[in-house]
Design goal:
Blueprint: E1 2-7, H1 19-22, H2 27-39, E2 44-49, H3 53-63, E3 69-73, H4 82-91, E4 95-99, E5 121-124, H5 129-142
Parallel strand pairs: 1-2, 1-3, 3-4, 4-5
Helix pairs in contact: 2-5, 3-4
Bound molecules: 1,3,4-trihydroxy-5-OXO-cyclohexanecarboxylic acid (DQA).
1,3,4-trihydroxy-5-OXO-cyclohexanecarboxylic acid binds next to loops.
Length: about 140
């Protein structure tokens, strides 16, 4: 089993970026944490971060036939991207959506998630641990 962990725009700036909302640990620490969670299940991981919507669409398309589950934090594209939603619907790979912050308690413009129309599960407000919940869910359901 192989999981693809996709992180969208500005998540490369974790640690620097609004630490009161997103925490003080950086992107490398997130990758290490998620990899350890997947290792505990004996599952392989591939990580992809991009600030570009089309690059995320390409990564989802390239996952077809290769990847068994996707964990995605689309970041700001959550609230705008029909293209990312359509890519997920096209490849039909089981997907869990994760947000570090409790999006439901934030601004009105964050209250729509296009990816949620496809994701099996959405986890918010748990920080790094949300990714663990996502990995555990996919591993337990699809391993
Ligand atoms: C986020 C929430 C989004 O609204 C925001 O644009 C992000 C990060 C989160 O992880 O809480 O960049 O996806």
């Amino acid at each position: 089993m192989k999981l693809l962990i996709i992180n969208g725009p500005n998540l490369n700036l974790l640690g620097l970026r609004e630490p009161t909302i997103y925490g003080d640990r950086n992107y490398d620490a997130l990758v290490k944490y998620v990899k350890e969670c997947a290792d505990a299940h004996g599952v392989q991981t591939e990580f992809f971060q991009s600030n570009h919507e089309g690059a995320i669409v390409d990564a989802i398309q390239q996952a077809y036939g290769r990847i068994d589950g996707i964990v995605i934090n689309p970041a700001a594209y959550t609230h705008t991207s029909v293209a990312i939603l359509d890519a997920l619907k096209a490849v039909q790979i089981p997907t869990v959506e994760v947000h570090l912050s409790k999006v439901s308690e934030r601004e009105a413009f964050r209250q729509i998630s296009y990816v949620s129309y496809y994701a099996e599960k959405t986890i918010t407000g748990m920080g790094f641990e949300g990714y663990k919940v996502a990995v555990d869910y996919l591993c337990e359901k699809y391993c």
